[in-house]
Design brief:
The chain is an alpha+beta fold. The protein has two domains: 4-72; 81-258, Heat Shock Protein 90. The chain has helices spanning 4-33, 42-72, 85-95, 97-102, 122-138, 163-168, 226-236, and strands spanning 81-83, 106-111, 118-120, 145-153, 186-193, 240-246, 250-258. It is globular, with a radius of gyration of 20 Å. The protein binds adenosine-5'-diphosphate (ADP). Residues 131, 135-136, 139, 193, 195-198, 206, 211-214, 217, 222-228, 251 line the site of adenosine-5'-diphosphate.
C-alpha cells in the first residue's frame, strides 16, 4: 500500500509527465488543421478534428488530476483579482455553445444587476461554472433546458448552514416581504437543468472524489472529480455549494461566493 504522501507525489508526477506529450500532440493537430503543411481533404479534417477533441478530453482529465493532487497537498493557491462575475458567466456560457447546440439544449441566462465587482480567482471559478454547466449538458436529455442565474445575496453565515433558510434572504427581503437592512455580501449562483436529477441519498456523495452515481453512468465520460474539485474551490473562497434535486425532473446546483472571504462580520 502506498502512503498518502507517496500517492500524491505519484499523482502529481504522473500527471505532469502525461501533460507534456499530450500538449505536443495537440500542437501538431493545430499545425495540420490550420493547413500549414498543405490543404486537408474534408475527410482528413474530420478525422483530425475528432482526434483533437479527444486530446482536449485527455487534457481535461489530466488537469483534474493535477488539481486534485494540488488540493490534496495544500498547494491550491487562489489568485484574487477584481472581476465582473456576470461578464465571467456570459463568457463561460458562450464557450459551451457548441456543446449546447449539439444536444439541442436551450440555455436561459439570468444575471441580475447589482452584483458589484469583487475579488475572486477567475480561472478557478470559471472551472466551477464550466463543470456545472457541462454536467447539466451531460445529464439532460436532448431538447431540455438549462438555467444559469446569478444574483446579489445577503448571506447570514453565523446561522447554522441551511439552504432553505438562506433562500429567504436571497433578494434582501424577509419572508414577510420586508426589505432587509443587511447589505449584500455574496453572489448566489444557480445552475439548474431539466435532466435526470440526483436522488436524496446521493446528494452528499457526488461531491466526493471519484463518485459517479447517475443511472446509465457507464456510458458517460468523466472521472467523478469535477464536483469534488468545485467544492474545494468554492470552499477555499469561503463559499458553500450544494445540490437540490428531484429525480427525473432536474437538478439545481447552488453556490454562494462571498464578496470578501476574509470579512469577519460574516
Ligand atoms: P463526472 O461528471 O466526471 O462523473 P462530477 O464530479 O462532475 O464527475 O459529478 C459526479 C456525479 O454527480 C456524476 O457522475 C453524476 O452521477 C452526478 N451529477 C453531476 N451533475 C449532475 C446533473 N446535473 N444531473 C444529474 N446528475 C449529476
Amino acid at each position: 500500500m502506498l502512503s498518502s504522501t507517496k500517492k500524491n507525489n505519484f499523482l502529481s508526477m504522473a500527471t505532469h509527465e502525461l501533460r507534456t506529450p499530450v500538449t505536443v500532440i495537440k500542437g501538431y493537430h493545430r499545425i495540420l488543421l490550420d493547413d500549414r503543411l498543405g490543404k486537408l481533404l474534408p475527410e482528413q479534417r474530420k478525422v483530425l478534428m475528432e482526434s483533437e477533441e479527444n486530446c482536449n478530453r485527455l487534457i481535461k482529465i489530466i488537469n483534474s488530476l493535477l488539481n486534485l493532487s494540488r488540493i490534496e497537498t495544500g498547494k491550491l493557491e487562489l489568485v484574487y483579482e477584481e472581476n465582473d462575475f456576470s461578464d465571467n458567466a456570459r463568457e463561460v456560457t458562450q464557450s459551451l455553445k457548441v456543446n449546447l447546440d449539439r444536444k439541442e439544449l436551450s440555455i436561459v441566462l439570468s444575471l441580475e444587476t447589482g452584483i458589484p465587482k469583487f475579488k475572486y480567482d477567475r480561472e478557478k471559478v470559471t472551472q466551477v461554472l464550466t463543470n456545472l454547466l457541462e454536467n447539466s449538458i451531460k445529464y439532460t436529455p436532448q431538447g431540455g433546458r438549462i438555467y444559469l442565474l446569478a444574483e446579489p445575496y445577503f448571506w447570514e453565515r453565523r446561522n447554522p448552514f441551511n439552504p432553505g433558510v438562506a433562500d429567504n434572504k436571497r433578494t434582501g427581503k424577509s419572508s414577510l416581504g420586508l426589505m432587509s437592512q443587511a447589505p449584500f455580501n455574496a453572489v448566489r449562483v444557480e445552475v439548474s437543468d431539466t435532466g435526470i436529477g440526483v436522488s436524496p441519498q446521493h446528494r452528499q456523495e457526488i461531491f466526493e472524489e471519484f463518485t459517479q452515481v447517475a443511472a446509465g453512468q457507464s456510458n458517460k465520460s468523466g472521472l467523478g472529480l469535477g464536483l469534488a474539485i468545485a467544492k474545494r474551490i468554492i470552499e477555499a473562497h469561503g463559499g458553500k455549494i450544494w445540490v437540490e434535486s428531484q429525480v427525473n425532473v432536474g437538478s439545481k446546483f447552488v453556490f454562494l461566493l462571498p464578496f470578501s472571504p476574509m470579512d469577519s462580520s460574516l
